[in-house]
Here is the input.
Amino acid sequence: MTETDGFDDLLAVIRSQRACRVFADAPVADELIGRALDAAVHAPSAENGQPWEFVVVRDAQRRADIGALMARAWEAHGRAHSEGRLAPALLADVDAGLTGGIAAAPVLVVVAADTRRGLRATVASSVFPAVQNLLLAATAVGLGSALTTIATTYAAELRELVGLPDEVEPVAVVPLGVPARRLGPPRRDPFGEHTHRERYGILW
Amino acid sequence: MTETDGFDDLLAVIRSQRACRVFADAPVADELIGRALDAAVHAPSAENGQPWEFVVVRDAQRRADIGALMARAWEAHGRAHSEGRLAPALLADVDAGLTGGIAAAPVLVVVAADTRRGLRATVASSVFPAVQNLLLAATAVGLGSALTTIATTYAAELRELVGLPDEVEPVAVVPLGVPARRLGPPRRDPFGEHTHRERYGILW
Here is the structure.
């Protein structure tokens, strides 16, 4: 693999990684989950503390209970916040995802951080890079995924559902499954619109 | 590209991405920086708000000033916290990096979040995935990089150095440059040691 080939292949994965909120009724093998989590734990973390913990949930009732937390937070605060901010198609997609679509994925990975292996101030910078590796690896093996944090609105309940001890904080929930339909490329502004030279305001 | 090939190439990049804190005296073309930032902006973000802003700093004085913030935070709090927690070789590497090595990279990318495009509560989950894409893309094009957040200890001063308006929060500083020496693979615990089935404590 030359460096250029490596970059092109990486970019192909990065460009096709996109939030999936509707899943096919198809199983996901442990082996694929393991590959995605192996990628996740190679991410950087403060002091190389590797504070991540992953709880892989397949049980239907537990997935439904986690999904109920998502739906409750969405209905209590999220939808009102997003209405008028999101394009109608995206709002409808998020709405369907948070009221059942995501919880219907065959696997929900609850991502947490053990604060004994990292300061609270560095939890986010130490865990979200691992989550991104997880999403990219899932994409590369053909699985749909999404980065969701809304269930952590009810952290105490989420913690109880998967038995997290006090020192382990829930950070995100990532569904994994076969996408119900092919997802197009993500819509993003060109990087040059948000890149500056030397000082903010001198656009690239 | 088959799905398996895509995964293997991705994993090769993920496994070789590692914090670089000593850089060669060699230039970095704008084109490589652009490729890395293009990868960055394809990351997911809350409501697809894409709150990231990147300030690419090449000016030697400005890099030294940012480096001075890192050194000050390290000497005031960081080193005392890390002593006894890090293995001696890693501590020496971090120490050298935060007292000049990182600032000597030809490029420092100040990563920030525009809070007008995302709630403060979702800044971290919306920006660190983009930073991880940046690190992976840098690795794939042969550049050394590192995820650092210590300069944000003095956020007001960092903000002033690169002219960030009040609504734009500095989040991280990523050096980019040719590594001074070849980095070995990162040391990580196997994912199975931090992965559980259904409930925390039932190890994978």
